[in-house]
# Entry
Amino acid sequence: MAPMRRISALLCLSSTLAALASAQVSGTVVDDETGIPIAGAVVSVQATDNETKTDEAGGFELSDTSGGVIVAGAKGYFYVASNESEPVSGLELRLEPVPQEDDPYYTFSSPQR
# Structure
């Protein structure tokens, strides 16, 4: 292989690897039943410290995902995971609500008069 072709091949390979290493995932977290955005949900790359919280519109942006498993969760909802091997934008993560009778943190209160 000619030296110039080797250099071109190496540059192409290194730029591809750099793009994968800094993969970015963005999207929204919504309630599976209503489609309403969930503010304050935690979105992370599984088994890492790489995490963020959703904004008021349920939006999130997570960089350096490196092809990991994206996990999202919020109080009162079951966690959801999505395996994203490439950069993604517009990912919708739908969280299923935990039934109130199964949520150990749910507290019943009496109506106020």
Remarks:
- Confidence is low (pLDDT under 50) at residues 8-21.
